[in-house]
Amino acid sequence: MSLPPLDTPAAPAAPWHAGERQLQAHIGMAERMAQVGAKVIRDYMPDQHRLFFAQLPFLVVGAVDGRGDPWAGALEGEPGFALSPDPVTLRVAAMPDADDPMADGLGPDRPLGLLGIELHTRRRNRMNGRIAAWDGKRFDVAVAESFGNCPQYIQARDFHFSRSPALRFPGPPRERTGLGEADRALIARADTLFVATYADTDVAGRRVDVSHRGGMPGFVRIDGDTLTIPDFSGNRFFNTLGNMVLNPRAGLLFIDFERGDVLQVSGRAEVVLDSPEIETFAGAERLWRVHVRRVRSRPGALALRWRFGNYAPTALATGQWPGASGQGRS
């Protein structure tokens, strides 16, 4: 099934770029989303979001390296390491390790995407922007887009630090071109991943985004070095998949929450809108794939550790999510 033309017009106040508008038009929601966009995506952080970021022990970051490849990674610190001195700024007192491929995408005036996610409460907020101040130890992000997400498909987990997050043990960068047996095993048991994408737009310049996806272990289908992820009904923003339409690249982050191991991959992205394969993922409306080209595995990279929380069972824990579930906020 073909998409509408790239030059599908949008209402002047809508924040959507051409790729997002294409997918919204594909499901017959372009007019509705043009009205919704300006109401839900802000160019500042409301006080609730500012307070939320200040209580987090980690942030998920999306950045683009010098080769144009997106990477998703995590920055961690004692709560308060990320603070908002004013509604248009987030100050982050943490830096990626030298062996983190995301590090190549950070620096003065570089665009990035941020996801604040609190696993034990299943809350999350997104903030995309550009690095406005940088001294090699901390950086300020100038807000370009700020918006909230629902708790859908987030598995509740409590956290603790296994060591001080200030104690870093980066290893030598060891990049591979394909997934190893241990990589595939981690992905196969994962119930969570994070995805970084970006697009270059005429109006807003480069927009980087990082998002969450979740499901029952096995929700990511592994075929050699190709990963297939189902996409379900969500809020119809299509930030992630809209970026892929304009720029078919994606970076994925998988975390072993018990051991602190990190797996980061980057590769060619593909959006699947019309295929019999969609029906093999119960409840999926579409699929997306990443054909892995670059791989970094970083054992014990995070000081944080998580365990399942002592909360009422989520739909994930009780197996009530649709099929091999995924996050529909595309």
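That was protein one. Protein two is written in the same sequence-then-structure order:
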Amino acid sequence: MSNNPNQYPTSAPAQEQPHQPGKQQAMHPEPEIIKSTHQGSNKLKDKVALISGGDSGIGRSIAVLFAREGADIAIIYLEEQEDAEKTKQLVEQEGRQCLLFKEDITDPDVSEKCVEETVKAFGKINILVNNAGVQFQQKDLINISNEQLDRTFKTNIFSMFYLTKAVLPHLKEGDSIINTTSITSYHGHDELIDYASTKGAITTFTRSLSTNLMKQKKGIRVNGVAPGPIWTPLIPSSFDAETVEKFGQDTPMGRMGQPSEVAPAYLFLASDDASYITGQVIHVNGGEIING
């Protein structure tokens, strides 16, 4: 795929996947994970990053980019073993180690387990990326079942509390927490009401935790990234084919984004380049102006 932003696909062919979180290898075209022009410069040398939802899409891109910058990686994923193994392979090709945890992060005990095993393997955790999420397209509020509502909130926001609580005792001054929120946190979404609500909670969680940790003078920074329409397995596994075919075309740039275009925002926030930044959200959305 070209590194010229004007030559990325404007959209994808109509397609659907029957089950979330979706399979990256089943997408056509497959998302771009890392830009071939990116030369690592040890921005994260010998750091350790724990990434939820790290098997595919934005999570995979973050994992590979962090590895290129010198970090060892641990990823938590729900069930897509083939995607997870591919991410591990890509990380190892960058000369770094990668742990895989096939777990359901809606279980509070999972966070403790994954954190303990990561620290046992690598001796530390420096970066937490809360990235896992689900979304379910519903045209009417009354169609959002109690079961869907429960799953969306447990996966998208409850898990961030569980995982952050487990990681926090291991973080030190200069370490970083980065949460994946969404453009929907700022302007809502009429067919993703429960999802957008969790993303609003994530934005507020990010701001509140950053203030809390600064008041405690722990020196741990907390920031967020708010992607717009990015081509990941979540898209064909949560929208109908007609929506997928038009995905991203209503942005000012007129196209969907790639994971490779989002991950550098996480790298910036994780690195010392962002040493004076906390409680903020970077908007990677194809040009929509967000005041918030």
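The longest strand covers residues 221-227. Keep this in mind for the problem set.
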